[in-house]
Amino acid sequence: MPLEEKYDKLLDDYLLANAVGYTLHKELKVVDQSNDLWVQVQKKLFPSVLGVAFKVLKTVSPGKAFKQVTNQYVYSLQRFIPISNIEVTMISDREAAVRITNCPVLKRQRALLKKAGLDIDPRYLCEIDAAINPEVANAFGVDLDIQLEENGCIATAKLK
After folding, report:
1. Which of 9, 61, 95, 140 could form a disulfide with 91 if both were Cys (CB 3.0 to 4.6 A apart)?
2. CA geometry: angle at 74 spanning 68 and 77, to 5°?
3. pLDDT for residue 62 is more than 90
4. SS3 sequence, the chain?
5. Count of C-beta atoms within a 10 Å radius of residue 121
6. Residue 142, φ and ψ in degrees, nearest 5
7. Are the beta carbons of 114 and 92 closer than 8 angstroms?
């Protein structure tokens, strides 16, 4: 199987598994508890050395530290979203806006949900990210706000 086909199939499986899990969490009324668990897990996955190194870099060179975090965020988005759909605007050395336009994952999610007969908003993954990522970013001294748009989102980050 060609690599691109493997990626497409794995992405569909990932999205569908998340959709089923979210649907169940919604039915059981435990979406908030699930999001809280995700925040706890994400915070534990960051090695303590990275946290200390970032704090030192942030003290010595806050602009450079912030740019590093912004670049890492954009890099992580590219697991699912092509760079051509990501717009980065450095407002200052301590503030940035990252906009996702014409999100291909959202388009794919809409089709999968329709095919699977799941009656949930296709932006549910975006909603989860908007709930989880600001809390994780806060651990690094970054205020993060994510606003959903019709076919994407915009994340605005400010170094504290």
Report:
1. 95
2. 140
3. no
4. CCHHHHHHHHHHHHHHHHHHHHHHHHHCCCHHHHHHHHHHHHHHHCCHHHHHHHHHHHHHCHHHHHHHHHHHHHHHHCCCCCHHHEEEEEEECCEEEEEECCCHHHHHHHHHHHHHCCCCCCCHHHHHHHHHHHHHHHCCCEEEEEEEECCEEEEEEEEC
5. 14
6. -120, 125
7. no
Mean pLDDT of 24-30: 96
Tally of CB atoms within 10 A around 49: 8
Q: What is the mean pLDDT of residues 37-61?
A: 77
pTM, entire model = 0.83
What mean pLDDT is predicted for residues 108-135? 93
Is residue 44 exposed (0-12), middle (13-18) or buried (19+ Cβ within 10 Å)?
Answer: exposed
Region 131-149: mean pLDDT is 90
Q: What is the mean pLDDT of the chain?
A: 90
